[in-house]
């Protein structure tokens, strides 16, 4: 069996180091040279010939993070790596997964084309914004779920009147899956937007009086939707309100909004690094999950069994 090596781009090195430690081997050496005009070059500082190469890099903005990933893939291909597997904890630009009005790109598909053309053999990612993005790739995609990290944490909370909530109708399937795993109910918020990142109205569908609510989402961007949903829960008699979100984008005034929100706690993962610490935000690592999946890929073992909750 071919040996494996784990490398990282600059954006996700903090996570790749934890993945390599959990896997049981050192993180490979990558050198990035930056020229005075901002152009940069990447190089692997060790032999890759005949190895299975795992490259860890989330593709959150700036777009340099995506381009650096593509450069690393191209370098690995030209260095005669046996297989190139990219680990993209957060797949950026995934919100642009369809044409919702005329004359706009389907950027998630464009990025899928770029990654495929660069020479990738397999992709590992966590909680895509839309499940159908897997179909944009003509190669294997291991779509992992943060539920394997969040559910044990929820169980340890021992909340007496647990109910899950989705901040919008698009997250109904996620809330239903968590509710089934924990044998409890769920509620939904119905929202209408005037434009992106701005919620006009929101109504609650379901009863949360006396309940311990956990709002579920894949991303928090500006925090407008999720904090408004939290306030609605409190206004309708919720006993406590928490949030579980996989990807903490947290742009604009998100940190201030979350600090001043009705949330008791906001639980996120480390697919994106926090820009600053917050007393309300708790970070759970994805490193052990990703290291386990890397081992399973190498040993041709089942990955879906990781997400079969009883």
Please provide a brief summary of the model.
This protein is an alpha/beta fold. It has helices at residues 13-23, 64-78, 107-118, 147-157, 172-182, 224-235, 254-259, 287-298, and strands at residues 4-8, 30-34, 40-44, 52-56, 83-88, 122-126, 141-144, 162-166, 185-195, 198-205, 212-220, 240-248, 265-269, 281-284.
Secondary structure elements and pairings:
Blueprint (H helix, E strand, L loop, with lengths): L3 E5 L4 H11 L6 E5 L5 E5 L7 E5 L7 H15 L4 E6 L18 H12 L3 E5 L14 E4 L2 H11 L4 E5 L5 H11 L2 E11 L2 E8 L6 E9 L3 H12 L4 E9 L5 H6 L5 E5 L11 E4 L2 H12 L12
Can you tell me about this structure?
- There is one protein chain.
- Helix content is 29%, strand content 28%.
- By secondary structure, it is an alpha/beta fold.
- The protein has a 7-stranded mixed β-sheet.
- Helix 1 (13-23) crosses helix 8 (287-298).
- The radius of gyration is 20 Å and the shape is globular.
- The model has no long low-confidence stretch (mean pLDDT 93).
